[in-house]
Specification:
By secondary structure, this protein is α/β, with parallel strands linked by helices. The protein is built from six helices and ten strands.
């Protein structure tokens, strides 16, 4: 079948190995000082490893490849002694640490819960309400621990810049993923969200979009992913105006 899959440029690769822990499926290994794909059926083609390559040697291409096989991934992880992302020990998930080593650019991290906004001292700095990293939908691991029993916020990229009270009004207490349906591949978003919904016990879904028509794509991807997951999860859509007002 023709599908998206990781491609590694041997000329650019310097064998640093940062992409190895970045791949939750364990599909990449180092052979003779170069990163290689262990097997086509172990690669989901989502590119979570892209952000960890300092040489820009990894990209996503479309070619003839075996279908991604989750069962094969399970066996492979067991054989290589690696654990799926959602089974990582709690010690790797506290403040200031990230799971699996390597560059933190796309490693799953959970932060200490910040103080509620109303407990901050008068005149003090406004604390970020962000509780995890990464947030970009292409980069988040589908089985990240911060998705378990979470209220999920799916936000278009521009929302946090347009709405001045984004952190306190929408982000606080939620897991976050962001994306741009105009500039990115919405089919990739659909696939990624479907896997997140299937593998995690999401309690609620809030989708924040801008009022511009193209931004409706992120809502469509979320609704289709929820339907594909076969789950029934409370779903809310909020529209933000280009001047930051809540329009519905």
């Amino acid at each position: 079948m023709i599908r998206k899959i990781v491609s590694i440029d041997e000329e650019k690769c310097n064998g640093c190995g940062l992409c190895v822990p970045a791949c939750a499926e364990g599909a990449i290994k180092i052979v003779n000082g170069k990163a290689v794909l262990s097997a086509d059926n172990l690669c989901d083609g989502l590119g979570a490893c892209l952000g960890d390559c300092p040489q820009d040697a990894i990209k996503i291409i479309e070619r003839e490849a075996d279908e991604f096989d989750e069962a094969a991934v399970e066996v492979h992880l067991k054989d290589t002694g690696r654990k799926p992302a959602h089974h990582e020990p709690p010690a790797t998930r506290h403040h200031g640490h990230h799971a699996g080593g390597g560059c933190p650019g796309s490693r799953a991290m959970t932060f200490e819960k910040p103080e509620p906004a109303d407990e901050q001292p008068a005149g003090g700095k406004i604390a970020s309400r962000l509780r995890q990293w990464p947030v970009q939908l292409h980069l988040v691991p589908t089985t990240a621990p911060y998705f378990q029993d979470a209220d999920l916020l799916i936000a278009a990229d521009c929302v946090a810049f347009a709405h001045g009270d984004f952190h306190r009004e929408f982000l606080e207490g939620k897991a976050l993923v962001i994306g741009c349906p105009k500039l990115d591949d919405n089919n990739a978003y659909l696939h990624k969200l479907t896997e997140i919904f299937r593998s995690s016990s999401i309690k609620s879904i809030t989708v924040l979009r801008m009022e511009v028509p193209c931004c409706g794509g992120i809502v469509m991807a979320a609704r289709q992913a929820l339907a594909a997951s076969g789950k029934e999860i409370p779903f809310r859509e909020v529209v933000i105006g280009i001047q930051g007002e809540i329009k519905g």
